[in-house]
Design goal:
Number of helices: 2
Order of helices and strands: HHEEEE
Helix content: 10-25%
Mean pLDDT: 80
Shape: elongated
Strand content: 15-25%
Largest sheet: 4 strands, mixed
Low-confidence stretches: 154-158
Length: 158
């Protein structure tokens, strides 16, 4: 056993206390870093709850699905008046006033919608001319739906 003088003994005791405190703080820091990296449940954390996925890059996290820009797609092709078997013009669904706010509606032209209408014996091409009405007061556009057709979807090209 080493014998220290009174002053050296106090200094050595203080050094030992500080050394123990440093070890304790380093262990706590390692624990907090590990919990931050692995999540709150340690290695049992589900991958969806892990705060940061190490192999994911910033580009992969921002990337959206779907086709590339400019891709024309492979949906049903529309047709114009010259290819249509019948052209039907519809009357507007709403009058001169907006049904929501009562403001006057402006005429915004028409929109063409191509529909393949099948009859029992022969398919008939019908082109509906749909009038569009716009309310500048509430910012809504109104347009009638063609009779007997599905709503416009992403796969139907107008």
């Amino acid at each position: 056993m080493i014998h220290y003088c009174e002053g050296c003994f106090e200094k050595q005791r203080k050094i030992d206390e500080l050394t123990e405190e440093i070890k304790r703080l380093k262990a706590k820091l390692r624990y907090l870093e590990r919990r931050e990296q692995e999540g709150y449940f340690g290695s049992s954390t589900p991958s969806s709850k892990v705060p940061f996925k190490a192999n994911a890059t910033e580009v992969n996290q921002r990337k959206q699905g779907g086709a590339k820009k400019g891709h024309c797609g492979h949906g049903r092709q529309g047709f114009d008046e010259s290819e249509a078997d019948e052209v039907v013009s519809l009357a507007p669904e709403v009058g001169e006033r907006c049904p929501q706010c009562g403001g006057l509606l402006e005429d915004r032209g028409t929109e063409k919608r191509s529909v393949m209408d099948t009859l029992p014996l022969r398919a008939k091409r019908v082109l509906y001319v749909l009038p569009k009405r716009y309310c500048p007061r509430c910012g809504r556009t109104f347009q009638p739906r063609p009779p007997g057709s599905c709503p416009t979807t992403s796969w139907a090209i107008n």
